[in-house]
Design a protein that fits this description.
This protein is mainly α. About 70% of the residues lie in helices and about 5% in strands. About 5% of the residues are buried.
Length: about 100
């Protein structure tokens, strides 16, 4: 509940809620807020937290796949660079005029 309270206190709507409900805004009994508006916001907050936590394994798997793809592409680039250097024993320098 503390994380929710902190989140709500940072909301641009918090001042309006305090104006309307006063200090009674966070009164709770048995884990349920007395104020239905705050209870509904708390339930939505909990749901969003659970959704975010549920996405973590998927995001980790996607990240691991991208790392693997990046590793494979780097290996291919290195192979091509080796082939280029073997095909042309004298490296040529390309001169570019940066002002063009």
């Amino acid at each position: 509940m503390n994380e929710f309270k902190s989140w709500l206190e940072q909301s641009p709507h918090y001042a309006k809620l305090i104006y309307i409900y006063g200090d009674r805004i966070f009164i709770a009994r048995d884990g349920v807020f007395d104020n239905l508006t705050i209870q509904l916001a708390y339930e939505a907050f909990q749901h969003q937290q659970n959704v975010n936590i549920g996405l973590i394994p998927t995001l980790i798997e996607q990240n691991n796949q991208l790392i693997k793809i990046n590793y494979e592409q780097n290996a291919q680039i290195n192979e091509l660079l080796i082939q280029l250097s073997e095909d042309d024993p004298e490296p040529k320098t390309v001169h570019k005029n940066l002002d063009d």
